[in-house]
Design brief:
Layout: H1 2-60, E1 67-75, E2 85-92, E3 102-107, H2 109-129, H3 135-159, H4 161-171, E4 175-183, E5 191-195
Parallel strand pairs: 1-4
Antiparallel strand pairs: 1-2, 2-3, 4-5
Length: 200
């Protein structure tokens, strides 16, 4: 109980610091995107196309049906090894029961470096405030703060959705009439970023 109270106290105390730190980083991201936007898109596009090619091959071999979802999810587990990755998955109308998994990971390098820099600042703050700070408590800060970057990655996918759809169509894979691009955990809190036929 005491451990849980301390965890809550840490999160509450650092909420304002986290928001302030993230606002500063967002301004830097904007500058970074203006300078390197094409390269960032090219890297993501390459990762998506590799997975679409595998899905196309699986369809030709009869191992995968029409594609219903292109799913993106933030891999919190990658943060434990100081990476920041998106899971990209192509799911047919059998969902997770389809016969051939077609998925891969995309390392969000341009966010990772800033994230680690932000954490260094937050860790210094937390050690000034809380006595005998434990390593597992640092992971509390990391996981809590990562939600800001998860939201940023979602915005990136949302803003690029039309370009992503173009890559899906160019790939030649067969998609369902209600094909969707989703972001988040498919069985939990996924958000529909794009739906075929919507607004058309």
């Amino acid at each position: 109980m005491e451990e849980n109270n301390r965890r809550i106290a840490i999160i509450q105390y650092f909420q304002d610091y986290m928001e302030e730190c993230f606002q500063h980083s967002c301004r830097l991201f904007q500058t970074n995107l203006e300078k390197h936007g094409n390269r960032i898109w090219d890297d993501l596009k390459d990762a998506i196309n590799k997975i679409l090619q595998v899905a196309s091959q699986a369809q030709k071999q009869g191992q995968k049906g029409d594609i219903q979802y292109l799913a993106f999810s933030f891999l919190r587990s990658s943060l434990y090894v100081d990476r920041m990755e998106l899971r990209i998955e192509v799911l047919d109308d059998g969902f997770y029961l389809d016969r051939q998994e077609t998925a891969g990971d995309y390392c969000i390098t341009f966010l990772r470096e800033r994230f680690l820099g932000d954490l260094s600042l937050l860790y210094r703050k937390v050690k000034e405030k809380f006595i005998r700070f434990q390593n597992y408590e640092l992971s509390v800060i990391k996981m809590q703060y990562s939600s800001y970057y998860d939201a940023l990655a979602y915005r990136m996918i949302e803003n690029l959705r039309e370009l992503i759809v173009q890559e899906v169509l160019k790939s030649g894979i067969s998609i369902t009439d209600n094909f969707k691009i989703i972001y988040g955990e498919f069985m939990d809190k996924a958000v529909v970023v794009y739906e075929k036929g919507e607004g058309q």
